[in-house]
Amino acid sequence: MRKRTTIVPLLALLSLVLPAPATAQPTGTVVSGQARFQILSPTLVRTEYAGDRRFENASTYNVVNRTFPRTAYRSRVEDGWLIITTSAMTLRYRVGSGPFRADNLELKTAGTTASPWRRVVCATGQLCEAEDQHREGVLVAAEHPGHTGAGFVAGFSYTNNGITATVRATGAGKHRLVVKYANGRGGDGKHESRTLGLSVDGQAPRQITLPATADWREWKQVETEVDLSAGEHRVALTRGAADSGNVNVDSLALLTSGQPYPVDRAVDDCRFGTSCEAENGAIGGAAKIADEHVGFAGTGFVAELVGGTRLSQRVTGVPAAGTYAVHLRYANGTGGDGKHEPRTVLINGQAVTLPTTANWTTWATATAQIPLPAGTSDLTVTCPATGCHVNLDTIGINNATQHLPLGGYRRSLDGYTGNSGDPRLYPGLLHRDGWYLLDDTTSALLNGTPRVDRGAQPYQDGYVFGYGQDFKTALGDLAQLTGGPKLLPRWAYGVWYSEYIDRTAADYRDRILPAFRQNGVPLDVLVVDTDFKAHNTWNGWRMDQSKFPDPQGFLDWVHGEGLHSTLNIHPSIQGTDPDFAQAQATAKGKLAKGSCNDCYVFDWADPDQLRAYLELHRTMPTDFWWLDWCCDGSGSSLRGVTPDSWINEQYAKLGGFAFSRGFGSLQAGGYSGSGPLPTGPWAEKRTTLHFTGDTSSTWGALKATIGYTSAEAVSTGMSAISHDIGGHNDTTGLRGSETYLDNGQVRYTTKLPDDMYARWVQLGAFQPITRLHSNHGDRLPWQYGPAAQASATKFLNLRERLVPYIYTLAEQANRTGVPVVRPAYLEHPGSPEAYSTVDSQFMLGPDVLVAPITTPGDVGETRVWFPPGQWTDYFTGRTYQGNTWATVSAGWDTMPVFLRAGGMLVERSGNVTNDVKNPADKLTVHVTAGAKGEFTLYEDNGRKLSARTRITQSDGTVTVHPAKGWFPGKVSKRDWTVVVHNPDGSTRTVQALNKSAHQRVVINLR
After folding, report:
1. Which of 130, 361, 468, 1003 has a 20 to 30 Å separation from 916 between CA atoms?
2. What is the C-alpha radius of gyration for the chain, rounded to an integer number of angstroms?
3. Checking DSSP bridges between strand 350-354 and strand 343-347, what pairing results, if any?
4. pLDDT tens digits, 703-717
5. Alpha-carbon separation of residue 362 from 133, 261, 486, 624 (angstroms)
6. How far is CA 838 from CA 207, 227, 703, in A?
7. What region holds the CBM6 domain (predicted)?
8. What are the phi and psi torsion angles at 718 (to 5°)?
């Protein structure tokens, strides 16, 4: 028995050390030792490394489905490399080389070579930047001076917030683990010693104390002793239940006795044939990492190099000694020395001239021929004594492409004015060079349970997308893998009215809705903002009986009018609230005080607190909830789950979908107004209508909306995106039409300039959601002058008529991942203009081009690029040839909207008050003469029954094919109207009336 028990562990140990040959399995899986590859589609491969060989098969909170159609692929081992090839990409892994990193895993797709995985291991004596490590519930910030690298990890303000670093002890024995931190006055108002938990290899944490520093600008070091064996270990700094957190951590280091705190930063390699981020290299001297100028690749750039600075990349995999092209992507604006002129940098001592760029947001590429030895060596960029005065973004080693994001997202646009450039976005799925790594390593399981801790054993779990320019396929893979964007109820795609102002049930019943009806303006969703609450208008939990004497009766009235309604919620409760005692009892006494005045907040990870929170909603009847949290501090301590996503999922269970911000949490040290959390946005789209926050009413904010909607959609897969149409915060001071009380004083609402209002409503009519909103500001057409009123009324009615079309696009998005509002490059990836116009125009589905006017005046104009094909102005009938530019002007009664030849735009044939009470039994199809095309209209009964009606155009006829599937009680017969747009700008109308939904209808256009 002893002999057997000795041999078995020895064999197990050898199996972990010795590489195993790659084996292909019939399930589309290839295993190579501790690495597993699952070929899910030609453009998507799961890459998983498990040091303990325990591969994970359960669904995670991000990845809910790995069941894809079988994919053809080839697998072989050649010269020590496992090579997996599909029709779209090739993946190479060096057999037996350990966890994935830059030098052992390579992707080739559509002419691009990349190293998807970056793994930073901090050896003894190396600086371990906190922002390079795995983060849980914390964000990277940079506003306090004195930090190194790109910034510091901020907050540790909630249980389970933390970072986990991989360190490598170069020898066995006792080591000093030193942490560089700042500890000023926290969000809880305290300035005192704080604690965090330190855990090594998943063992029980020990508590370390971080004494107070003078303020957030002072950085100190604290150290503790750890006894380590030689080799890799996982070191975690985490706020446990007994810790106070509320500190900022800049870096850490594993040191031997007497070893000074290091300057040299641990980095990963830059593989030959790839393009590497400058900010990921080893930086010396006064060089800094920055991100204030848009247009960069990765997470930032190395900023304005001066004399004595250097940037080094360790280049691996050089096939043979020789001279190779090195490509520097840089910006060269007016430098700190006041000069704007060509600059010189030294690459391995060789002088290279970098011509000027227009400014710091304009990036260019310079190429130099640099000798490199075979294998591994350092490539170093240095500056002459006079300084370089340039910003460096990427270094391509025999590779001229950059990993430039297409689109991007953020938690919100709160406070955005549009006066200081474009908002800072965070990269997501789509990139210009056609690849992405979705790192799912830290994601919890689907039910919210954290993954099993693996001790010192390394573990990686990521999905490599290699799509080239096939962006629609990438979005489809993402939807299949992580779930499609939520299909909202059809009425949600109509017109919403919302305003942050004190309203009563009588106001809505007797004044507001009658005004909508009297002025011929449609309405589908009535939003009741926060002032409806009793006890406290911010975070009370009962409807004020003086304003809403019969809450259920109010909702019944809403439904009787064909409307739906939502109530605004802020997630905290006052200690004096009449419902507090019961909530605290349900939570079993675990509700803790928040940073707001005498308020208590909820940890939604705790079942008792979540139950207490959800029970507070029961006395307030509504159709769905608007979680409008900005400053309360409730959150979730679940590891591996983004708190926004977790609570939004709970709201979706209550009301069908969540209406909220997304991708992050307010608990992240007060820094999360815009930033997302590293667990990513992948679960959010399954439940959430993303409310983008409180922007300002400026022309700049209006213009930014154009690009932001499609940018977020293509980076996350989110399709249901809702902006405050008209902006939230007033910037004009123009006196509005209503009065209200503010601390006993009578004040007037504000309003937009008429031209800004008209243009904003025009844009809103073609957004995924049309929601009029403001902070005590007029947003209703009859509150403006006659021309602006006529324009807004026209476009809000057009939006209502377009609901059948937009709902069809939303259902397509749910199935395919391709969003309702999209950039032109999804349809025309080979056209450079499709990328350069993302901030001025967008597509509504594949066939409608929208180019909003965002400048003041009675008549505005915009420069429009027309994609391949022929395009007809929806309003004027003028035609434009594809691959051309034109300056298009419009008054307030029209806007630049164009229909692609062969495309179809389906809308209601007449104006209606709302969608719910008006079956779509009269539909109009807009077509262009002489073109072929088709469109399939999707409809359902709000549950499981649905119908698809295919409409085709060919040879001078439009054919309505019999509906497939149907539901009773909606529409059994239809009047069809076809509007033909002729090349000369005229239109013809042809009708087919009273046709059965199951009847084939042929409409002759001649």
Report:
1. 1003
2. 30
3. antiparallel
4. 999 999 999 999 999
5. 30, 37, 37, 45
6. 50, 55, 11
7. 126-255, 274-398
8. -65, 130
